[in-house]
Write a structure and sequence with these properties.
Blueprint (H helix, E strand, L loop, with lengths): L8 E9 L4 E3 L4 E3 L3 E21 L5 E14 L25 E4 L4 E2 L2 E2 L2 H4 L6 E3 L3 H5 L3 H6 E4 L2 E4 L11 E8 L2 E10 L2 E3 L1 E2 L5 E2 L1 E4 L4 H42 L3 H31 L4 H28 L16
Antiparallel strand pairs: 1-7, 1-13, 2-3, 4-5, 4-6, 4-12, 7-8, 9-12, 10-11, 11-12, 13-14, 13-17, 15-16
Helix pairs in contact: 4-5, 5-6
Length: about 325
């Protein structure tokens, strides 16, 4: 009975199916699928830039920005009015055709109905190759504007030599397939399940997976997100510390070579310190739940701090090379 798990986190595996045919009302493309995607791209100018910084004697900097323009296909409109050099690189102000997607109204997953929020998350689309028969279904005015090219529609004079403003339209479909849902049962459908910690579970994956497999994949994904956040925090902390000690390098830029050395050393120290602080923060966060992991992290943070400190002392104590003898200049023979 469906009512037995009402409001609970469930894992359901079955084949997602529909009795409908999905249709693009504008182009009259119709397929027996769960979803139909229209991908519309326009040929446009794209601006790219790169900036070079050169050090000057006295500590000043000279920045030079180079702008490049190339043509490419894009599903979104590129506003050329914001270009540094818009003249000669003008894009149309609008797109005559835009991308869109169309879902079957009813998608069944066994006894359940798959909500649109989950159906849109599935990414297993296949190309729809259009034919002359599909082209004949277009309104007469569109048959005069578009041509059939490479399994899709093309708006422009020559598809083999595209011009700015040309549009190409292709289609993709999501056919009935086996999927697994991990979410909260809400009647005969699904809704996001909220854990005690406030996290939401509302996911779908391709294939017939068990509850253990879904849980394992969810844990793996959560770990990857967590470590990505930790890495981001480390990089931001390192850049922040490098910015704080940056003025020291400016003082050394009176002699460019010295400034570069100071900048490299200060950057190394900043990121080493960021590594120590990151390990300490992770260890503190884990201390209650994973004490056996937090202790090695604290030891590692201490070892890293000691290594950085000893390295700095060693370099400071090295000083200039010694002079043999009593340090007096050698006698001069005439």
């Amino acid at each position: 009975m469906l009512s037995e798990n009402e409001g609970r986190l469930v894992v359901v595996s079955d084949r997602a199916t529909t009795d409908e045919e999905v249709r693009d009302p504008y182009f009259q493309v119709q397929v027996a699928a769960l979803r139909l995607k229209r991908l519309a791209e326009m040929y446009q100018w794209k601006e790219e830039s790169s900036t070079k910084t050169e050090k000057n004697a006295g500590g000043s900097e000279t920045k030079t920005t180079e702008y490049r323009y190339k043509k490419n296909w894009s599903q979104s409109l590129i506003d050329s009015s914001n270009f540094k050099r818009p003249q000669g690189h003008e894009n149309p102000s609008s797109m005559s055709v835009k991308s869109d997607e169309f879902l079957a109204k009813v998608i069944q997953l066994g006894e359940f109905r798959l909500p649109a929020t989950l159906a849109r998350k599935v990414s297993n689309d296949e190309d729809v190759v259009l034919t002359a028969e599909d082209f004949a279904k277009l309104p007469e005015e569109d048959r005069a504007r578009f041509t059939l090219y490479d399994g899709g529609w093309y708006l422009g004079d020559n598809p083999d030599s595209p011009a700015i403003g040309d549009v190409r339209v292709s289609f993709e479909q999501l056919k009935p397939a086996a999927v697994t849902v991990r979410s909260e049962q809400e009647g005969s459908s699904f809704a996001p399940w909220t854990s005690s910690s406030g996290g939401e579970v509302h996911e779908i994956r391709m294939g017939m997976l068990s509850a253990d497999e879904m849980n394992e994949k969810a844990v793996t994904a959560a770990k990857m997100r967590t470590w990505a956040v930790r890495l981001g925090g480390f990089l931001i902390m390192g850049m922040g510390l490098a910015t704080i000690v940056g003025p020291l390098a400016v003082l050394g830029d009176v002699i460019p070579f010295i400034g570069s050395l100071i900048r490299g050393a200060s950057g190394f120290v900043a990121f080493a310190l960021a590594g120590v602080l990151s390990l300490v923060v992770i260890a503190i966060a884990w201390f209650t739940y994973r004490p056996m992991l937090s202790i090695p992290l604290l030891v590692g943070a201490g070892a890293l701090a000691w290594w950085v400190a000893s390295r700095g002392k060693g370099e400071a104590a090295a000083g200039p090379p010694a002079v043999e003898g009593n340090g007096s200049p050698p006698p001069m023979n005439f």
